[in-house]
Structure formats: structure tokens, C-alpha cells
Amino acid sequence: MAHNRRPSTGRRVIIIGAGIHGLAAAKTYLEMVPDIQLTIIDNDDSVGGVWSRSRVHSNLMADSSTPTFDFSDLQMSEEFDIPEWSSIPGPIVHEYLERYAKKFDIVHRCVFNTQVTSVEKEGRGWKVHTKKSGEAAIAKRQTLTCDVLMVATGHFSVPKLPNIDISAFGGKTFHTKDVNERSDELLSKDIETIAVVGGNKSSFEAVCLSYKAGKNIHWLIREEGAGPALLMRTQLPNGISTSKIGYTRFVSMFFPTIYSNSRNWWDRLVVSGGNAWGKKLFEWFWRSTTNNRIGDRYEKSENGRLLKPKILNLFWSQASTSFVHNRDASVFDALDQGEKIHVARASIVSIKEKTLHLSNQSQVNADAVVFATGWESITGQIFSPELQAELGLPVLWDSLPETEAKYWKELDASEDRKILDLYPLFDNLPYKYIQQDVEYTPFRLFRSLVPPPLTADRNIVFLGQLGNVQQTSLAEINALWSVAYLEGLLPLERLVSDQDAVNREVARVNAFMKRRYPGRRNIPLALLEVRDWMDMLLRDLGVRTDRNRLAWERSANRGFGWWGVKGWMAEWFKPYEPVVYRGIIGEFLERLGQQDDDKKTR
User: Fold this and answer.
1) CA dist 164 → 146, 198, 350, 352, 358 (Å)
2) Is the pLDDT of residue 2 over 50?
3) Residues 310-333, mean pLDDT to the nearest whole number
4) How far apart are CA 251 and CA 40, in angstroms?
């Protein structure tokens, strides 16, 4: 198929979501095609998504450090005069995203406090039905139309609550999403004891907030599942930032991956699990890495031991991870003392008045309950079930035609066998994993961005679906890839030969993710191996992937390079800061221009 490489003019573009991925998409589209008619719709009252003004409470901390939350063309440390590789308070993250949106003229294009209720096809475009946030379902709706739709709602918008009756509770209930807007209620003098339900990062933040307000806390974490989040130091014992080490390409040598250009001898010998000596080195690396980042956090008290994840290994853990910041020291002292903070590995069975009856046959009293129980999967809810399946979004397996379900299950099984051939370590797991049910199909998006049909109209992408630990850099690369795809500047047939090849690639990636993160939620994940994922997208675009080496080559004071050794050292051992991706849009467009010039001279 031939595609026009001249960006179209005047197209109507709607982005759903004004979080990190929505902002990056808006900035990139406007830079590449300035005369588009762009509208950004968001359910909240400000930009930021999970970092919006309404959701960022005073105690919230980013689960990373500067400069890892930077976009490539706006440095947070310079904007706020804070040291690099230091912890970032949540309010600064929000303010940073506000400044980014203003700098690139995005805010006035946003329609806030507006909920998208449904989306349907209209010819080669889309109809987007909306209503004002908080209004009843029968309220008057507005319908917008567009040529291009970019869905950037992510996975953290709609609170998920446990299946228990809370109507008889005599106190107040909250979800962590509400903590900021209702903090006066939560921290009022009338509330002396708070039960925090859940074991992830947001539960830890709620515990910290409650303790610093002088409350008594019952921290309730269910017995089943992967256990609480794995709590890591922000700094290693030698004072080096944990993030700084994790952002080097060197660490990626110990990740299995299918996203790189080719496998090398190291991958086969050490990472694959097929060599006994290599496997010992692999296990030693991850055991040492875990110990350095965890320390004796879980061995100081009974409460500490109750917080230990079921698998205490950074590579194999099914639990999420969270950083322990320096400001949290007093909270951990209180936790170890066990007077103001009490941990229980139990679920709430029932609630009556202000008494919570637990699954371990005990009961606790509380004036308020904060549910840190995660999020509903909503990406496909704005589409009809038929359209969800067509777009590669999760649907009930039973809803698929029998022949289609059989096709995908056989393809999934075939690709799974290939992954096990590449990485025998996945077939000989050192831990027993808790498998989630497979009632729903997995996401089937090519590059976790676009619907799988090769012949699909280039009019929709899904952003922010891939769980990862480098959101801003991935958001910028995703945005460039997506705009290139939508504007016909990225011929997919150059990447995959036909529809069967697209389906095989989608199944291959899903098979790897399922083996790499067994028992995790049914969402795409590339946590540790996200650098290789971003490299793959840049290779698709024809943009250089060795960004640290390129930055060294462009440096005005690089000096003598020792025949390329300094550039090689920078590439492998210097942290990959987001600033190294500055200019990728220009590099991509320059490459397209060179290709056009080459054709003219033939």
C-alpha cells in the first residue's frame, strides 16, 4: 500500500485524556502538523491525569526521581531549582505538567470537566459523545466529530472497590483518588482511627498522610494475591540514587527481551536460563540487586514482616514496587513500634456501624476507611462490544466467534512455545505464581498502540496502555510513532509483511509479557525492559536508538574520544535521561526529507 508522506491539513483531531500521554500527543501533533483542529477532552478540572490538581494531595510523592519525570524539552530541575536525582513531591509534578501544557499552547485546547460516554464510527472518522462530569446519565449530551481519535485514558481513572456492602458503615469511606479533594474530611478531629485497605503505593501514601495527621491506623492487606508493594530505597547504601543506576543501559543486560534487534552471546549464555553457569550469574545479580535496594526493611518488626511481598525478588516479584523516601523514616519507626500503625494480612468480610469484621476472624474499629484497591479497566467501555473486538481491546473470550477464538488460542500457544525456546528460564520458575483468570482476551494492539488489522483506517490510536517505569520518554516516542502512523508517514508494510505477520507479532509480544510477568493484571507490561521497547519504536521510525552516544558525539566539549571508547562508555554506563530524546521529531522528519530527495535523484 502506498501512503502519502505529506502531512494532511485541517484534520479534526480529538485526544481523550490530558495526562502525560495526552499532553505528549498534543505537543507532537501540533509540532508536526500545526494546522490541525485539536481538542483535548478530560474528565478532570486540570491537566495531569493521575497528577491532576484534584488528585495530588500534600503527602503524595512521585515514585521516581528527577529527571525521570521530565519531558525532553522541559527540565524539572531547572524549572523548580531542585537537585537532579532527588525525590519529587506530587504537587511539583502537577505544576510541571501545567507549565509544559502552557509552554506548548495546549491548555486552551482542553475541554475540562467533560466525560466521554461513548464513541462510535462515522464514515472514516468518529463521533464522540460527551456530558459534563458529575451530571446524571440522562443529562443533555454533546456530540463531537473528528477525523482522528487518540485515546489516552490510561488505566488509573475509575476507582475499583471491593465487593462488600458498606451501606451499614457508620463512618466515612474514601478511595485514594478522593483523598486530596476530601482531605479535610479524612483528617478532621472527628476521625481518630483510619483503616487503609490495600497494599500498593497509594495505600502506603494514605498511611503516611494519616500518621502525620496524628491518626491511629489499621493497615489491612489481603492474604491472597502477590502481597504488598515491594518497598525500595531511593538511595543505595553508597548514596547513589536507585533510579540513576536503573536508568543505565548496562542494567538491561540482565533483562530477557524480544524487542532488541538481535540476540547476542550474553543473552544466550546468561539471561536465557539455558546455561547452568549463566543462570547462577543471573540469579546472583538479581538477588544482590534486590538486597541492595531493600536492605533489612522487612526484618525489624512483626509489622515489617507482614509487609513482605510473597516473592522478595525484583525480577520475579508479582507485586508492584514503591520507593521509600527519606521523609518516610518517622512513619517506618512508628510502623516498627506498632503503637499507632497496625498491619493485618486480612480482608474485610463485613462492616457494621464502625466495626470491620476481617477474614482472620478478628475485628477492628475505625472512623473512616480508605480503599486503596486499584482501578477498573475502562479503555474499551466507551466502545460497543463489537467495536472493542475490532479494535483489539479485551473482550470476553465467550463473545468471540468460535473460529476466531480458536485461531487466536492456537496462535497464542504457538508463540508461547517459541518464547520458551528462547528463554527456558520462564519454564523453570523459582517461585510458585498465582495465576489470574483468563475470562477476557488480552489487548491485541500492534506496538500497544494501533488496532491489528493492517488494512484499518489510520484514524485511531491508544496511548498509555503499556505499563512501564519511564512514562514521559515513552509518551514522547509513542506520540511520534502514532502521529507518523496517523499521517501516513510510517508504512506498516515496511515493518510487517501481511496481516498474518501482524497477528503473529501481537501474539508474540503478548506471549512474552505473560511469561515475563506471570499472574499480573491483563494489561500490557514492559517495566524493566522499556528501554528496548522504546528502541524498537525508534527503529520503526528510522531514528537512532543510541541516544547517549549520539549526545556525546554532539557535545561541543567532548574532547578526544579514545577511538569511540568514551561514546561507548556513555551509552552503556551513563543514565538515560529524557533530555537525550530531544529532537527526535526533527530527526524523523529529516530522514523523510532525505528519502524524498533520494527518490527525486533516481
Assistant:
1) 41, 14, 7, 11, 12
2) no
3) 86
4) 37
Q: How many CB atoms lie within 10 A of CB 365?
A: 15
Q: Which three three-digit cell numbers place residue 106?
A: 495546549
364 vs 357: CA distance, rounded Å: 7
The answer to whether 323 and 61 are in contact (CB under 8 A) is yes
Burial class of residue 475 in the structure, from the number of CB atoms within 10 Å of its CB (0-12 exposed, 13-18 middle, 19+ buried):
buried
Lowest mean pLDDT among 125-129, 258-262, 390-394: 258-262
Q: What is the largest CA-CA distance in the chain?
A: 81
CB atoms within 10 A of CB 388: 19
Distances (CA, A) of 156 to 176, 177, 355, 464: 11, 9, 30, 10
* Cell triple for 268: 544466550
3-state secondary structure of 12: strand
Residue whose C-alpha is closest to residue 407's, from 507, 515, 258, 497: 507
> Which stretches within 383-434 are classed as H helix?
385-390, 402-422
Residue type for position 602:
R
Peptide bond into 67 cis (omega under 30): yes
pLDDT for res 435: 63
> How crowded is the C-beta side of 279, counted as CA atoms within 13 Å?
12
Reference 469, options 256, 320, 581; nearest CA is 320
Q: What dihedral do alpha carbons 132, 371, 17, 452 form, nearest 10°?
A: -120
CA distance readout (Å), 600 to 121, 274, 597: 39, 51, 5
In sequence order, the 6+-apart residues with CB closer than 8 A to the CB of 245 are 236, 251, 575
- Of 402, 469, 84, 441, the closest CA to residue 247 belongs to 469
> Residue 444 and residue 451: Cα distance in Å, rounded?
7
Give 105-125 pLDDT, tens digit per residue.
Answer: 999 999 999 999 999 999 999
Look at residues 21, 2, 31 and name the one whose alpha carbon lies nearest to residue 588: 31
User: ∠ CA(267), CA(271), CA(275), 5° rounding?
Assistant: 95
